[in-house]
Amino acid sequence: MKTLLKNATLLPEYGFESRPVSVLVEDRRIVSITETPLLETEGITETVDCKGNLLIPAFYNIHCHAAMTLFRGYGEDLPLQRWLEERIFPAEEKLTHRSVLVATRLAVAEMLRNGIASFSDMYMFEDAVAEAVLETGIKANLSRSFVSFDPTMDIQKDSRFAEFLSLANQYRNADDGRIAVDLSLHAEYTNVPRVCRDVAEYAKTNGYGIQLHLSETEKEHLECIGRHGKTPTEFFASHGVLDVPVTAAHCVWASEGDIALLAEKGVSVAHNPVSNLKLGSGVMPLRKMLDAGVNVGLGTDGVASNNRLDLLREMQTAAILHKGVSRDPAITVAADMLSLATRNGALAQGREDSGEVREGFRADLVLIDRSSLHNMPSYDDYAMLAYSADRSDVLFTMVDGRILYRNGAYTSIDEERLRFESREVFAHYFD
Fold first, then answer.
1. Which CATH class is domain 59-348?
2. pLDDT tens per residue, range 172-191
3. Which fold has domain 2-57+356-410?
4. What is the pTM of this model?
5. Is 365 left (phi over 0), alpha (psi -120 to 50) or beta?
6. DSSP assignment of 109-162, as one string?
């Protein structure tokens, strides 16, 4: 299958100085980018006229709990621990394969609508999440979280480990790597040292990455120091967890020593500004992370604490939030923000050939409407993306060379059926 994207505008970093280009996609990859118009008779299956609009890499959401669409608006205006203990943990006890499947389909539809090509998921019933990913065409790094409170627990005998093995055996690298499988430790405060060591050793021996929550709240951070004499970052490092590829979500309360350790260990950090603000957790030290050389991407978290799966909003929140906190308007620069949502996120997921509009790269692409009234005039496309663009400006989302969303319609999702199934699940879930 060949798709020709003609009359597209690329960002200045690609060297075409805003001149219209033709981007040829074959199967999953970008095979050519040229100013010379290509003939539509050269075996091209479909031609899309981009009409001068901005073609950018798709977004990578590197921290998400997709099926929490089920809890959108359910636990509002509470701090994290009360939100978890009074609302979310009890509700999650009622989850089923069916409810997670439908809730994930809803999440995927929202993400595709918003230009997201891939997400990192940390949840339960991940086989249902994998099913939704395969049928819809999106990409994902899937992980089943470990939670442990018994210091003698053997992960080989734990049901969560059995779920992980089943997921890995069935879905690891499925559909040419569209699905990746990671291990996951929910957090320091929900795991004992032995399990952290065993998970780290299994990951290192078998080539898995790890997803985890890290220093999300001041309470979590200080209580870990009280329990172990170490910060959560130091705790995980001491048990070998940071010796494999890790994506650490939040890191709001990471100390300067923690930041240096994250950089030294090559940890990717998921910045979740909207969720952290909504739960009153604080603001991650983004500038310090970037200056230290930490790979920082963006995450939405789950919609129960966000309430949207909108990475453009995360990027724009990050772009202005740190200016206000630091009282320095130059602490974040528009031209640097897009990489957090694109290339950095792809690298965090281990997708080395993704996150840029380059020949040979995976064709994960988004077309942004430059002619929207709120985007005119666009003197600087980076500034447009960082400060004025809206999710409504996403004209299409392409994942691995397939257009999955275009001009208000899905190519892999029956929207009316999804609405019906979602209402059915929601109605029964809270009976």
1. alpha beta
2. 999 999 999 999 999 999 99
3. Urease, subunit C; domain 1 (2.30.40)
4. 0.97
5. beta
6. HHHHHTTEEEEEEEES-HHHHHHHHHHH--EEEEEE-B----TT--GGG-HHHH
